[in-house]
What does this fold into?
Amino acid sequence: MAVNASRMDEEQKEVSKKETIFRLFGYLLAYRRELVLVLLIMAGTLAISMITPLLMERAVNVHVANKDVTGLLTIGAVSLGMFFLYLAGTKARMAVMASVSNRVLVTIRQQLYEHIQTLSFHFFDTRPTGKILARIIGDVNSLKDVLADSVTQLVPDLLTVLCVAVIMVIKNYRLAMAALIAVPLLAAGMFFIETTAHKLWQVFRKKNSNLNAYVHEDLSGIRVIQSFAAEKETRKVFFELADEQRKAFVDAVVVADGFGPVVEITWGLGGFLLYFIGIRIIGAENVGIGTFLAFSTYIAMFWSPIRNLANFYNKLTTNISAAERIFDILDTKADIRDRDGAGKLPQLKGEVEFSHVSFAYADEPEKMILKDVSFKVKPGETIALVGPTGAGKTTIVNLISRFYEAQEGEILLDGHEVSSVTLKSLRSQLGIMTQDNFLFSGTIRENIRYGRLNASDEEVIEAAKAVNAHEFIEKLENGYATEISERGARLSIGQRQLLAFARTMVSKPGILILDEATSSIDTHTERMVQEGIDALLKGRTSFVIAHRLSTIRKADRIFVIDQGKILEEGNHGELMKKKGAYYQLYQSQFM
It folds into this structure.
């Protein structure tokens, strides 16, 4: 099974930037009313900004020339009023778009989180958790400014550029051509910078993801690191990854910062050509002073939004790689999902049948984990699975839960093929207890109730008593209301294991799966919990995986698994008499 380690760059399929941009901005369409309001406000502010130079031209060419003080005061008052309207409109549109963009981010993050929850174990097995977090948190956050500016900056600046160009052409096409002659140079420079910068930003996102994954992994394993005094080595790796991220960022910024100089150079060239052609070729006497002033203002009004557009384009180039990474996850299809027409699994009696089942991981189809496995389990039977590590024991129970999909054969529960029923109705009737006694941050009551969220307090306590966890819980300062961390720092390994048992117990499963469930419990605690396990197993079909063979002597049947096949089958006494593989395993533990 191919795994992407924390220090490895992630592979990502190439997609069209245009497609990504349209898909991203498509989220804004859910807020059409807000967008219409913003566009109306922008139309008003744009009209004000277009009229202002014309008022200035009239003030100079008419009122100043004729010494008309009243006219100047009138234009001044109108201009002042328009200025305040412009400020109010700009502030209003920014506030509306800030609200819209933040709601879009919440939508994208929710979609991403919900989709990730539907993905199979294979997705999580092949990549570090930190890299997934980098997409949910960092990559989504980086889209905020792009979404907000797409309406509040992109649209008004584009309209401003077009309106200014049209007005200048109407007023004096020769001066307009002089002022705009540098635009093609700007377009060529921006295209070159964007093409180069986009690839560099993709590299930076990958390096940032690597660093995020390593930090998450490092903090999760801090006990191991400190236990082995490996702080120096981990710091070295961290500094290496941080340096790679820094270099990738610098490389991208050096190229991306070229947008500013290109705009400034072309802006200066346009202004120079305006005055050179206006004075030397057309002749200053043929152009009014007011017209020159108006054109100077329009030049600023033209190139200022061009600079804003370049900055937006730079921002889009910087962050579009984040959108690509988000959509890459959203487009990852869940290989384990409800099939069309899947029905609800009825209340389980507990019959389980494997019929010629073979399994291999999707990315290693030639390496068979299970090979033509067949067996049938009656309701209420306890089946123990034993054998060497990597033999296929856990794979069998994972296929019952449909955490993975078998390539060949059928898996039937009470005659229903597991792939023909909904995942929720299947897994809600399975009680799965693994050697990973993971606890969530919260109260002990909440952790036990996680097995069945609608369980009453009485049912929570009953489950805890069944596995002998109630006594130690009551001795805690706040009892069942005691707050614990995800690592259960205040609890012993055995206590954490007992809580995990209670969580499974409260779910009242139709089929119980115990995968090395007592591996972390000491002998004394194991004796305490064995009574609860016996009560839990009673009347339920159960699969128990254990390396400690003393814990499964009472099993109805024992399957000896090796190299993906069932080598032997029978109860403890029968298998001991055969003196085969099970006998050898048992002797190796007790001799």
